[in-house]
Amino acid sequence: LPWRPARQFVDDVCLGLLLALRFIALVFEEANALALGLATKDVPWRSLGPMRAIGVGAGVLGKLVRNLLGHAEKIAVAMHDRGFRGASTFHAYTPGGAKDLRWGVGDAVALAVLA
Fold first, then answer.
1. Per-residue confidence at 12, pLDDT binned at 50, 70, 90?
2. How far is CA 63 from CA 15, 30, 48, 49, in A?
3. Which of the listed residues 29, 60, 65, 70 has the most CB atoms within 10 Å of its CB?
4. Is the pTM value of this prediction over 0.85?
């Protein structure tokens, strides 16, 4: 693998990227839900003044962080319940072994058809 000479833990990096991709959707979903909730309350931002507006914004940001930490905890519990103990003990098993993961002629044909 190309990162092994750079002393990067490839499994840890891949796991981090996969979790980040999973978590990005949750961040947008939570932010959207909070924004819609704030819009339905019809907060008069201009009449609040700067300090109260900052207070309301900080409250919303705090709620966003609490919700995201709750989601992160649920993901961690789900990973633990499914037997994940860390990237160093995790191995992905493919049905045909590692030979299925090599680039072949069929892959080039499929890519050409899709292009």
1. confident
2. 27, 10, 20, 21
3. 60
4. no
